[in-house]
Write a structure and sequence with these properties.
By secondary structure, this protein is mainly alpha-helical. The protein contains eleven helices and five strands. Helix content is about 40%, strand content about 10%. A three-stranded parallel beta sheet has the order 3-4-5. It has a two-stranded antiparallel sheet with strand order 1-2. The longest helix has 16 residues. The protein is globular and about 55 Å long. It starts with a helix and ends with a helix. About 5% of the residues have low confidence.
Length: about 230
């Protein structure tokens, strides 16, 4: 949806897009925008969202092939839904991460996307649960982790708590994981990245996540001391 430049704080540095690269109007290096803090992170904008009719699955495949010699990891940000944006992203993807919230409607949508990815031979497919609220899970007001994983039958690589700091960092154009704060979501993002690189990091238990001081004191007072 062409908003990654805003999230990364790079909106004022974009000159060329992937469209100009494929048309031969510029070199790939001219269109890639390096992040000002993290030099190993670069953004390649797809183009004007009002003119993305030009982008076809074969175009996305060409773009990825051009990028491969330069970068170790290429992340393709697919829009929600199963329209052309999803088809373009899936055409060039070798594996996928499904990001969904623990809500019935969202999980049903995710299940549909997984089926389409399977038919396209994208594998492995892994799961991230976003905007998790442990209290609602405990009160059975939100699907539990096991409920979602049983339905989708995917390996879980991350749980991200509902975190107001995500909104703050997004509006500032400052990636949460590059900040100095200890935001729960930022910690979860970092752990997901490490797991993707093969590190073994245990997944947190939602019932133990984000416990307030009152809950901790109540648990302490209920503990018998012999």
């Amino acid at each position: 949806m062409r908003n990654l430049d805003l999230l990364l704080g790079l909106e004022n540095r974009i000159v060329y897009t992937a469209q100009e690269v494929l048309q031969g109007d510029c070199r790939l290096e001219q269109a890639m925008v390096k992040h000002k803090i993290e030099p190993n992170l670069a953004l390649l904008p797809a183009g004007n969202p009002r003119m993305l009719e030009w982008l076809k699955p074969e175009d996305m495949q060409k773009i990825v092939e051009l990028i491969k010699p330069t970068f170790d990891i290429i992340l393709i940000d697919a829009p929600a839904g199963i329209e052309d944006g999803f088809k373009n992203a899936a055409a060039a993807a070798e594996e996928a991460i499904i990001v969904t919230t623990p809500e019935v409607s969202a999980v049903r949508d995710a299940d549909r996307v997984i089926g389409l990815l399977n038919t396209r031979g994208v594998n492995p497919i892994q799961l991230v649960l976003n905007r998790v609220r442990p209290k609602m899970m405990a009160n059975q007001e939100m699907l539990g982790v096991s409920d979602v994983t049983d339905i989708l039958a995917l390996p879980l690589i991350g749980l991200i708590l509902e975190d107001e700091q995500v909104i703050v960092s997004t509006n500032r154009g400052e990636p949460l994981t590059l900040g100095a704060g200890k935001s729960p979501a930022a910690i979860a993002y970092r752990n997901i990245a490490k797991r993707l690189q093969g590190e073994i990091i245990p997944l947190p238990d939602p019932s133990q996540m984000n416990q307030g001081i009152r809950a901790k004191m109540r648990k302490l007072l209920q503990t018998k001391i012999f």
